[in-house]
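Input/output pair, single chain:
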Amino acid sequence: MSENLDFLGELDPDDPKQASQQIANKLRAAILTRRLSPGDKLPSQPDLAARYGVARETVKRALDLLRAERLIVTRQGSGAFVRAQTQRAVELRPHIEAAFERPHVSIDFAGFSGETLRDALAEALDKVRVGRLTPETITVRVLISDMTVPMALPARAETQADDPSVRERAERITRRAADGIIDHVTELGDLGLIRSTTVEVRMHRASPLFKLYIINGEEVFYGFYPVVERTVSIKGEPMAIYDLMGKDVPLFHYAVTDDDASHGTQFVEASLQWFDSVWSTIAYRYDA
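Output:
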């Protein structure tokens, strides 16, 4: 492991999360982005305590969180080490924020509405507004399903078929998220806080069955939309529908490594190829 630990960052005194949680988040991001590789030894508890200006017990609580997530193992008398296998469901937000620590940020999203992306971006962009994150350029591409045309999902449960009123509801959700992403990012360019901002949304006619995030062309987060039956209000009346549930679904993380043949590198490359192929062929302009 490199002796330069600047990639572990500093604690944010304005962050409401406890210091132990902040430390765990920074170590987790370093592990999942391969700054700390499988088998690497973590800095010692005294070293981490000194770096972050906290008590050793605080560091111990942070390591306990990572151990519970099966990201690290501890060896008696030797310290803590990154597990050899770290593939697991992850949270998107810390990685979005980490991306904004770079001068050039690029995010590609494909999925249903982009609500999760909108909310994760909002937190990072708030930190740009107050000067805590200072990227020079932001480029966002969003691929979403066109809910103005017949879809297999979402659908009316009773008939298991496309229903215009169900799609109207889905279209409102989709537009609210897409417009929010556009507004949040372009505002920073209009205010002069970012040198260059580009946001483009395109649509296609395929039903969304998964969500995909590609960050800075180096990391991919991938998750499936479970199909669930639930009752919603449509035109003031309850209706049972088959819906796509994206909130809190597990996201699996893949990252480019120095090994071109690694599973992570190949998955990122394949995801970029898939996204670009859809973007440049069957996708068409979204009218905000």
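Residues 10 and 52 are 6 Å apart (CA to CA). The first helix runs from residue 19 to 32.
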